[in-house]
Amino acid sequence: MDSDFLGYARQLACRRMAGEIVVSANIGVSMRKWRENFNLTQTSVARKMGVSASVVSDYETGRRKFPGVQFLRKFIDALVDLDTQNGGEKILELARMEPIPSGVILGIQEFALPAKASDIVTAVHGEVVACSEMLDRYIFGYTVVDSVKAILYFKGNEMIHLYGSTNERALVFTNVEHGRSPLVAIRMYPFKPRMVVIHGPARIDPVAIEIAKAERVLTVISRSPTVKDLVQSLQDVELIAKLSGKESP
């Protein structure tokens, strides 16, 4: 799992827990609820915090009142740290409960006239890293997403939200660290995009390239200077096709 992805999930989970504990009428009961939700013992949490188990117990039972901000921060950090060591299942579950932010899908469009994949590669200043033999195929639209947020919020069949009216499109991932996570997500979903564009890394993880080849998905690294430039170049693709008088397939 990419470090940026896991870090974002941790941030959302911590925010949710802190907000609920602070406004709770019984902070100790809320602390205990969250610890048990994470399937952690008082002893393991206390050890991670560097305190005795009796201190955690005293706050949870109300024998000690109103733990300070610093103690609560250490308590929540201990929960997410221990869960991270176990694979991060609970923090991912919590993060997915947050409302989907507007920054997940950065752009989505269906082309009135399909564009050749090679034209999109040119537009995004792309470098083909897998399945170059598919450059003559037509692309019928595009979706631009923040990879960290999209992979976090869309799981399984929820990936359909990224495909618009057709999967014969370019799926563009921004905010990418290595490129493996987007390709793994695509491999797990039954419907594949016709093209994948990765924006962010200087090079793509070799495993991601092998996945792209196995799934027969044209995969490209975009060298566009910024995400804004990338989105604008995709918006211009259809206009360029119209002006050049290219025929649809």
Described by the principal axes of the CA atoms, the overall outline is elongated
Helix and strand run: HHHHHHEHEEHEHEHEH
Mean pLDDT: 86
Rg result:
23 Å
CATH homologous superfamily heading of the largest domain: HprK N-terminal domain-like
Percent of sequence in beta strands? 15-25%
The total count of strands amounts to 6
Provide the CATH topology of the largest domain: Udp-n-acetylmuramoylalanyl-d-glutamate--2,6- Diaminopimelate Ligase, Chain: A, domain 1
Poorly predicted ranges: none
CATH architectural arrangement of the largest domain? 3-Layer(aba) Sandwich
Structure description:
The chain is α/β, with parallel strands linked by helices. The protein has helices spanning 3-23, 27-37, 42-49, 53-61, 69-85, 89-96, 117-123, 147-153, 180-188, 206-215, 227-244; strands spanning 105-116, 126-130, 138-146, 170-174, 195-199, 218-222. It has two domains: 3-96, lambda repressor-like DNA-binding domains (434 Repressor (Amino-terminal Domain)), CATH 1.10.260.40; 105-244, HprK N-terminal domain-like (Udp-n-acetylmuramoylalanyl-d-glutamate--2,6- Diaminopimelate Ligase, Chain: A, domain 1), CATH 3.40.1390. Helix content is 50%, strand content 16%. The chain has a six-stranded mixed β-sheet. The model has no long low-confidence stretch (mean pLDDT 86).
